[in-house]
Amino acid sequence: QVQLVESGGGLVQAGDSLRLSCVVSARNFTRYFMGWFRQAPGKEREFVPGTRWIGSTTYYSDFVKGRFTISRDNAKNTVYLQMNNLKPEDTAIYYCAAREEVRATYDYWGQGTQVTVSS
Description:
mainly beta, 4-stranded antiparallel sheet, 0% helix
């Protein structure tokens, strides 16, 4: 069983920064690929960045490159999403998700954390 718990969301102004955290509870958690997603009201859920627990490979959607950074602390079973220069269009519920490396779909999701950026 995999459990994901996000935290760190909040209300900020445009240009501010936030750091989201996702604590992972799972046996052999390093076998999972981790991703952050977001869903804004009335829009589909979209992939933001992703990373593995081992190695330095990361993946970003174009709309966050240069502003968002994904990182992880294996000792704390935690994945982070550092968000800088936030824009009102970044307003969404942000979800942490995990999938086994051999699978294409994400099977495990956190409860989500709200990020609201005011102009």
